[in-house]
Amino acid sequence: MKKALPPNAKISKDAKECVQECVSEFISFITSEACEKCLGEKRKTINGDDLLFALNTLGFEKYLDALRIYLHKYKETIKGDRLDIDPIPPMLLPDSDDRDDGDARE
Description:
Radius of gyration: 21 Å
Order of helices and strands: HHH
Low-confidence stretches: 102-106
Structural class: mainly alpha
Oligomer: single chain
Distance between the termini: 33 Å
Mean pLDDT: 82
Number of helices: 3
Number of strands: 0
Strand content: under 5%
Shape: extended
């Protein structure tokens, strides 16, 4: 919220709580619509495409292009992360005594 305001602006605690409640309600609204789609298709897992469908159904089509791009980039990043996984467990690498648990790639 602060990024959208001038640097010297202050945001009251009540305003922050109000925005948080609105965001939570919005997420619930979109997720509920996506869930209905999944139930109709006899699926249990909601995915990004289901959320885009729900946004479109509920009249938020103005945001779809940007969100499709974001979802595509996210999926590409996840693919890249999966390729970066070290196939050798850190404890089997040389000098493993010098490493913290799980920090083999630093």
